[in-house]
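Quarterly update from the structural biology core.
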Amino acid sequence: MDLFGNNPFEDDKLKEECGIFGIIGNPSASALTALGLHALQHRGQESAGIVSCDNGSFNAHHAIGLVAGNFGNDAVISRLTGDTAIGHTRYATTGEGSLRNVQPLFADLEFGGFAVAHNGNLTNANMLRDQMVQQGCLFRSTTDTEVILHLMAISIEKEPLKRFIDALRRIQGAYSIVGLGEDILIGARDPNGIRPLVLGKLDNSFVLASETCALDIIGASFVRDIEPGEVVFIRDGEVKSFHPFKNMPSKFCIFEYIYFARPDSYMEGRSVYETRKNIGKELAKESPVEADVVVPVPDSGVPTAIGYAEQSGLPFDLGIIRNHYVGRTFIQPTDKIRHLGVKLKHNANKRFIEGKRIVLLDDSIVRGTTSVKIVEMLRNAGAKEVHMKISSPPTMYGCFYGIDTPESEKLLAHSHSIEEMRRFIGIDSLSFISFDGMYKAICGKPRNRDNPQFCDACFSGDYPIPLTDYRNKDNKKTLSSLS
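Predicted structure, tokenized:
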């Protein structure tokens, strides 16, 4: 660990919690689910799981690690029989990365078996959990997702859909959920629509997924986004839509556009790749600088850097090359090799760096530790100047809606001015995109200060959903686990 308590071989990035996938009406449901999860691997790399249903019989496989390593085996898929399946790929946060927390979670309820997979975070899960434990409920995991199953179990409703909706009425937070019962597939988004969920179709099968790239990998067509506050019930080739909650303003997570989503996905009707290019163009308008070349921090900085280069007229080069094959636990570094740090994942392309004034594009600055190492690497490669441009405003606040962020005081921008951040990182200039520039790049108009079009709480501190479980002065996370 470094002086900040960080592993120098970890990306200093915000981490998405998970990706979810479900399909009904296809004899290859489990194999297609595994493919869908593979496309969503960027949303979580700690663990993966699939639950399938075959004429009322449920089958499950949960594993720590990547999708390909755990579901690339025909023997595993062959045991997951049935024409309906849901899957989940998870990034573990403050909770355990153990098998008991790997989703989808399954329970035998009064009406039969039911499995659920969840992307997001419930902000009143601790309160509900405490209440149910006092009533005698037994929890087997430390993830907030299990609260949903227990709420369904104690519901007085009889039908699975009504129990599911009854459970949703009691939870708060940001969520996209897929649920699996006997011959049914259910999907839902929270009333503010913070986390993504899309509906697709493959022949006579219907698909639910976190992103459209998961539809592309199996050859499914995009039908539409699940709407904020919508619950879809799929059975016998028919999709029924319900809106059981009070209408709330849409607050889709703006960081999906900036970093989390795959660039080939579409979010809320917008191309993620095109949006990131637009952000780069806005950055070039807001903070032009005399330089020789535009260089992205790969991979998320690439589309933004292309947009910056197009708008500024500067050439674009891959001045940093990323090694995609370094895992989170590649080695336990010794003191003698600890200084290698970022070079395990990034290396300067010296020929295109030496003697040049660099415009360096990245999506965010969290603790700043990786930025320091990358800039040092560019300096060592002979960069004459380094001007850093960030495609989001300063990240000043923690997220409580399904993104793993450090506590606020560990975020560099929370305690440092931009000039102090510039000196800390060791760059010639530092610019962040403005709120209005970010919003114009994404939706074509400035930020509505009275009612922002997106959830931007990590930048603004404006939390659209009550933080019931986080009522303390330091704004620290207190849940034992986030989904």
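The longest strand covers residues 112-122.
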